[in-house]
Specification:
This protein has 273 residues and is an alpha+beta fold. Helix content is 51%, strand content 12%. Strands 2-1-4-3 form a four-stranded antiparallel beta sheet. Strand 1 and strand 2 form a beta hairpin. Helix 3 crosses helix 5, helix 3 crosses helix 6 and helix 7 runs antiparallel to helix 8. The chain is elongated.
């Protein structure tokens, strides 16, 4: 049986040599000193940072190939804009877990990009404090689908409308919530509504992680701010299924926006455009 610790150390040596070779390659030096400095900086922490990969059993072969063949190019590209004088050694509390996360997600572009960006932030002395260790755990608790939607939301400076669909009995006070966290998600090409069945759960996840806040006690001002709600396919479907002579469908207005933590995460993970 393979010793996972030995395998991890082999992986460490392999990646370390690749990065070291890249730093000594004349072609790399001709391209500029940043890439070589990047390789040197990463190599200093690679022995400790990659040891958590010992726990990656079922995916280790793919992970090892990624770190051997593509990681150096990926992280060098991310760190290429860092001035040599500002290059610092990333904290092990960030580098180790981030590299472990990469072992699992290097085939998922949205998540891989966030890990690489977080590593690059941790290596940039000008902004390294923005790279909080908790951000690795946040990325681990996102999937590719919600990572894409979250990017758009965290780029908005301010609140955007959100709604919950309610149903009430005729002549009675109060209501029941049929679906919550409804947002006006549209195709960027033609503007048609896009249904995301897991949208409410995704927003709950972002709330749990502290990246956004939702308030149904507030609403945006403007006649048309919520005009989209009754035009959404989700609302139309619920109306056709649940509304009758005894039950009336309506919706509650609210707002959703990034938190201070969400903004810092977006900066550190490369989500801001």
């Amino acid at each position: 049986m393979d010793d996972p610790i030995k395998s991890a150390r082999d992986g460490v040596a392999l990646v370390g040599e690749i990065l070291k070779a890249a730093g000594e390659n004349p072609n790399v030096k001709e391209a500029g000193s940043n890439l070589g400095q990047t390789a040197l900086t990463i190599t200093k922490t690679i022995n400790n940072a990659l040891l958590p990969l010992a726990a990656v059993n079922f995916a280790f072969d793919k992970a090892r190939r990624y770190f051997a063949e593509r990681f150096q190019e990926d992280i060098s590209r991310k760190a290429s804009a860092i001035p040599v004088g500002d290059m610092v050694e990333p904290k092990a509390s960030i580098a180790g877990p981030a590299l472990q996360g990469l072992a699992f997600t290097h085939e998922e572009p949205n998540l891989k990009d966030m890990y690489l960006s977080l590593l690059a932030t941790a290596m940039d002395g000008r902004v390294a404090p923005e790279a909080h260790p908790a951000f690795v755990e946040i990325i681990k608790q996102l999937n590719s689908e919600e990572a894409s939607l979250l990017r758009g939301l965290l780029n908005i400076d301010g609140s955007v409308p959100i709604a919950e669909v309610r149903i009430s009995e005729v002549g009675q006070q109060g209501w029941r919530v049929l679906t919550t966290h409804l947002m006006n998600l549209c195709n960027l090409t033609d503007g048609t509504p896009v249904e995301t069945p897991r949208n409410a759960a995704m927003v709950d996840n972002w709330l749990r992680l502290g990246l956004v806040e939702v308030d149904y006690g507030k609403q945006l001002i403007g006649v048309d701010a919520y005009a989209w709600v009754e035009k959404r396919p989700e609302y139309f479907n619920l109306r056709s299924q649940r509304e009758d002579e005894k039950n009336i469908l309506s919706f509650g207005r609210g707002v959703i926006g990034r938190t201070a933590l969400g903004l810092q995460f977006a900066k550190a993970a490369g989500l801001l455009q």
